[in-house]
Predict the structure.
Amino acid sequence: MHCQCIVSTIIIMSKKNPDASQSGLPVSFEAAMEELAALVTQMEAGALPLEASVGAYQRGSELIKYCAAQLDKVEQQVKVLDAGMLKPFNADGEGMDA
């Protein structure tokens, strides 16, 4: 019974955005992270049957690839905005141009 609830939750989460569910992509980075966190929690609980665990692992891998691609895209945007002159972050503020 508990497994059915978990599988239902995964199905409901994937149907929140019909466009995204057709392509398998989440609507945003944040949505991907939320879904990934839910999958990890479910898998760590050990309540999923074997086939559902494999499916959750596969979906998690897809979500990780999506998130990595989104982060790469944002990094490229930051490089463009900063004219390719990224500077190391210095927490104490020394060496920063003001």
